[in-house]
């Protein structure tokens, strides 16, 4: 079929989540670049028999359309400069002149009916993750809905569904007037289409301004006067496994680098790079006081809450002074359940919701896909999640060494 690639004409920021910028700043300033830093990412399709190889050629063409494109446009520069924790030297000397090079950095193939994608390059190659994911998702949507009219009709159904969900959420929140519900939209990577994503953002901005904390999408944040939201992803901690010190100290070194870079801003830790239990062994009183909160991204959220709250208690820290960000595959119903149980007791909460908002078409199942860091300077790295199926590592030997180092069974 002939794919419509007109969506590639949108600004690069429409394909970027804000955490890509915040991590890039920290990598630029906190890593030792004397020997160079090369990162390799790999795309994984979790949906069984998705047949993503059908978009292989279109994906190559779509990504190549971003070759030599500026990451930041002149009319976006003022927005970036207004963000307090983005340093002038980073905005003016890095972001302003940074261009994408997917022709050089992205390798595309196929295996067993699925497209294979690897990205490799310097630290700026990290920006290509969300671009690849959003593009694959958009192309897969076109396979299911080949015409623009069909996609528009599906988008209409998705908006109608979401409007009903928003109404139910607002009724639930209104029933507890002393409690705040904080929603961050994070649907860039698995959205139905860019056009649908824009319509979703307009809907939630207009219909739930009291609950919408912000969005991870840089373009929509700037264009709709919303707060850009993003801190760090698993890859930031993972890269320290092969950079700057021993394996045993990688967690504390990654946390310290973040503290050094942001000096109190963006203080949210992501424990499940190593399993939360093992991570907390390095998250001592020093870091627990410095970080504002933690994010849940895998495993049972109730068990995770008990584990982290208990950890704060053992350190003599009142969890009421902390934030928990829940982000693991949430819809509004799941978020409301967590909100009723935990908002204000034992801590403040917020909810990072992606696919449920941006790919919410009734009867259509969004593609489950991720793109994870797999190597630093040619050496393997690993993510050991609180859910075994979310673990990432190319090397059984390195994974075994990591588990042994931290006593993970």
From TrEMBL:
Pfam families xrefs: NAPRTase (PF04095), NAPRTase_N (PF17767)
Chain ranges of the Nicotinate phosphoribosyltransferase N-terminal domain: 17-137
Post-translational modification: Transiently phosphorylated on a His residue during the reaction cycle. Phosphorylation strongly increases the affinity for substrates and increases the rate of nicotinate D-ribonucleotide production. Dephosphorylation regenerates the low-affinity form of the enzyme, leading to product release.
Organism: Termitidicoccus mucosus
Function, in words: Catalyzes the synthesis of beta-nicotinate D-ribonucleotide from nicotinate and 5-phospho-D-ribose 1-phosphate at the expense of ATP.
Catalytic function, reaction form: 5-phospho-alpha-D-ribose 1-diphosphate + nicotinate + ATP + H2O = nicotinate beta-D-ribonucleotide + ADP + phosphate + diphosphate
Annotated family: Belongs to the NAPRTase family.
Nicotinate/nicotinamide phosphoribosyltransferase domain ranges (all copies): 181-407
EC number: 6.3.4.21
GO cellular component: cytosol
SUPFAM superfamilies: Nicotinate/Quinolinate PRTase C-terminal domain-like (SSF51690), Nicotinate/Quinolinate PRTase N-terminal domain-like (SSF54675)
GO BP: any one term: NAD+ biosynthetic process via the salvage pathway
Protein name: Nicotinate phosphoribosyltransferase
Pathway note: Cofactor biosynthesis; NAD(+) biosynthesis; nicotinate D-ribonucleotide from nicotinate: step 1/1
Keywords assigned by UniProt, alphabetized: Ligase, Phosphoprotein, Pyridine nucleotide biosynthesis
InterPro entries for this protein: N/Namide_PRibTrfase, NAPRTase_N, Nic_PRibTrfase, Nic_PRibTrfase-Fam, Nicotinate_pribotase-like_C
């Amino acid at each position: 079929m002939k794919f419509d690639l007109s969506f590639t004409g949108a600004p690069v920021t429409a394909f970027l989540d804000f955490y890509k910028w915040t991590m890039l700043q920290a990598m630029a300033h906190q890593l030792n670049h004397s020997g160079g830093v090369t990162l390799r990412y790999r795309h994984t399709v979790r949906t069984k028999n998705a047949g993503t190889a059908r978009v292989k050629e279109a994906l190559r063409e779509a990504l190549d359309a971003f070759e030599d494109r500026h990451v930041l446009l002149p009319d976006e520069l003022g927005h970036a400069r207004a963000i307090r924790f983005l340093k002038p030297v980073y905005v003016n000397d890095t972001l302003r002149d940074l261009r994408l090079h997917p022709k050089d950095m992205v390798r595309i193939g196929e295996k067993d009916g699925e497209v294979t994608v690897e990205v490799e390059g310097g630290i700026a190659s990290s920006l290509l993750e969300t671009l690849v994911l959003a593009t694959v998702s958009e192309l897969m949507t076109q396979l299911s809905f080949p015409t623009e009219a069909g996609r528009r009709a599906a988008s209409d159904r998705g908006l109608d569904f979401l409007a009903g969900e928003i109404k139910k959420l607002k009724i639930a929140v209104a029933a507890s007037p002393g409690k705040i519900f904080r929603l961050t939209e994070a649907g860039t990577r698995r959205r139905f289409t860019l056009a649908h994503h824009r319509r979703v953002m307009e809907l939630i901005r207009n219909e739930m301004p009291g609950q919408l904390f912000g969005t991870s999408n840089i373009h929509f944040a700037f264009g709709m006067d919303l707060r850009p939201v993003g801190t760090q992803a698993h890859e930031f901690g993972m890269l320290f496994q092969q950079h700057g010190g021993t394996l045993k100290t990688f967690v504390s070194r990654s946390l310290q680098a973040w503290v050094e870079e942001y000096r109190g801003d963006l203080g949210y830790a992501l424990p499940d790079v190593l399993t939360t239990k093992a991570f907390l062994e390095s998250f001592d009183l020093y870091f627990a006081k410095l970080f504002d909160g933690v994010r849940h991204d895998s495993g049972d959220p109730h068990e995770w809450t008990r584990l982290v709250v208990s950890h704060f208690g053992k350190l003599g820290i009142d969890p009421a002074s902390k934030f928990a960000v829940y982000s693991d595959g949430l819809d509004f119903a799941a978020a409301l359940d967590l909100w009723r149980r935990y908002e204000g007791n034992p801590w403040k909460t917020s909810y990072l919701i992606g696919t449920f908002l941006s790919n919410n078409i009734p009867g259509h199942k969004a593609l489950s896909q991720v793109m994870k860091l797999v190597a630093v300077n040619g050496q393997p790295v690993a993510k050991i999640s609180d859910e075994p199926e979310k673990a990432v590592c190319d090397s059984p030997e390195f994974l075994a060494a990591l588990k042994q180092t931290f006593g993970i069974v």
